Amino acid sequence: SWEDALKQNAKAFIGIDDGVMLPHAVDDRCTCMGGFWTGCIDHGCTAWVAQMMYDYASFSGDAAFLRDRAYPFMVKTMRVYEAMLERTGDAFVLPVGVSPEYRGASMNAWGANPSFQLACIHRLIENLQSASAALSEPPAPIWREIADGLPRACLIGDEPHDQIGLWQGTPLEESHRHHSHLAGICPFDIIDLEDETWRGIANRSLGRW
Q1: What residue spans of the chain are helical by DSSP H?
Q2: Backbone torsions φ then ψ of 4, nearest 5 degrees
Q3: How many CB atoms lie within 10 A of CB 133?
Q4: For 93, phi and psi rounded to 5 degrees?
Q5: Cα 68 from Cα 136, distance rounded (Å)
Q6: Which of 100, 120, 188, 196 ranks highest by number of CB atoms within 10 Å?
Q7: pLDDT profile of the chain (209 residues), mean per 10
Q8: CA-to-CA distance for 97 and 102, rounded, in angstroms?
Q9: 16-74 per-position pLDDT tens digit
Q10: Residue 23, preceding bond cis, omega within 30 degrees?
């Protein structure tokens, strides 16, 4: 019942007609509450709902829900990220994004390649690829290009001391109730902790948190 509002949000935010966007604090009619500007541009909420829809279809085996509800929603969610990303050659960057509630609604509460949003994008792409195969739908080529050209997290510092940061140039500066910059580890599980390189990065990042 919120789909028209979600489409209007995507149109207002990024100028596309085939996307959906869910702010991170809405009432029961999908009206954004509180004037929290970072929540208005936090597309991660849409991606997280898309994951829950996919998980429901996957665990329940409800192929009709996947085909009729989840997959179209996932595609429209990804369309907003596709429009938000900038491309240089084979590389992609998310030039503006936030990490939930970090720095509140301050004017510096944003940066390029926020790790939370990168994790959302990669989880969404992996789910889209799996859903496409299950539905015998051709995946959009741009999904693979983004998966290959977009970092899985924003790393701060040089090897062998690098760790996951909030966004470019910003490490975790203080204890925070959200571990959103670590979402690639949990809940989105797009960082392979069996990989020797990522294991060290993850351990240092968890230690700092």
Answers
A1: 3-14, 37-40, 44-60, 63-65, 71-84, 115-135, 141-149, 196-208
A2: -60, -40
A3: 10
A4: -140, 145
A5: 14
A6: 120
A7: 95 97 90 83 94 97 98 98 97 96 90 98 98 97 98 94 95 87 96 94 94
A8: 11
A9: 999 999 998 889 999 888 778 888 889 999 999 999 999 999 999 999 999 999 999 99
A10: no
